[in-house]
Design goal:
Helix content is 67%, strand content 0%. With 70 residues, the protein is mainly alpha-helical. Helix 1 runs antiparallel to helix 2 (30-37) and helix 1 (2-26) packs parallel to helix 3 (43-52). The longest helix has 25 residues, at 2-26.
Length: 70
């Protein structure tokens, strides 16, 4: 029984780390998604959500509306 609990905790921590890593790579608030990734049974939803969110970098650039020279 102890091995099962340890295995579940290990999986839980790995998913929370993946939420942290995906939020950092895509430019989303790391603290918010890390905290949401630590909530049991909700962390899988957050992780899948982060996998499908686009990167924020192209949307935050100040030169987004300027035309590029050819």
């Amino acid at each position: 029984m102890t091995q099962l609990v340890v295995l579940l905790l290990l999986i839980h921590v790995i998913i929370a780390y993946q939420c942290y890593r995906n939020a950092m790579a895509k430019g989303y608030p790391v603290k918010v998604f890390s905290c949401l990734g630590l909530i049991p049974y909700f962390n899988l939803v957050v992780w899948i959500y982060l996998l499908f969110l686009p990167k924020l970098e192209p949307f935050n650039s100040p030169n987004q509306h300027q035309k590029q020279p050819l």
